[in-house]
Write a structure and sequence with these properties.
The protein is mainly α and 289 residues long. It is built from 14 helices and no strands. The mean pLDDT is 83. It holds the Pfam family BPD_transp_1.
Length: 289
Amino acid sequence: MNRRRSPLAPSRAASAGRAVLIAVALILAIGPVLYGVLLSLRPYSAVVQNPLDVIPSWEELDFSGFTTAMLDEADGGFGLGRFVLNSLLIALGTVVLSVVVSILGAYAAARLRYRGRGAVNAIILGVYLFPGIVLSVPLFVLLARAGLTGSLLGLYFVYVATTVPVAIYMMRNYFLALPESIEEAAIIDGASLPRMLRSVVLPIALPGVVATAIYVFMIAWNEYFYALLFLVQDRTLWTAPLGISQLTDFNVPVTVLLAGSIAVTLPVVVLFFLAQRYLVDGLTSGAEK
């Protein structure tokens, strides 16, 4: 029995064209990354002789690029492992403090009624839109007065100050998307504001909070300008972006540069896989608003 084709179903030509378009998009998106990964697994001499031979044989597999990039200078490496550890320390600390502060600030901006509320929200958005170069001098002067220049603690405070406005702006939209009737029911049942926020609002807004936390982590992890400004004099305190920049020197083998870049990217990829469900839900709930 022949099944009738739906008039809304795409034609075979359209289906074939869509498949070709998806394949081209995948090649353009994944191709350069996959090429870099395969090159990083080959000896440098083999890459120089034949850079287009992308598939390494079992005898040719070489992980020395990763060890050279990650080991300390005393062990013959470029110290990227220590720089990655510094970045992890600062990025995770920034996420914790920024998210806690932003939850309170975003809920106040979304729900509480007070005089000047619109002006406060506009100031938050304005600070978020300020370019980093404008804020660099005031931040440097403040940290110099506090004696925190050239320290991870000073850079940590800079990252918190620069990520809180964007985190508040993002989470405010998530809180606005929540139905107020749930909060009103919790208040009628006798819940205080802190308890209602902790037990009712946050579980519902968890995807939005996680999506914001990932975005803050990405900002702190990839930030280069402030790290260069505050840490350039002490190499032991460098973060991963500063460490990668040193590998761009012509004297560094390209396999080491590729291996270092892949090693720095892995924590972000793992984080995305672990929080993928929350990230999609959080972005969707923000879009609904």
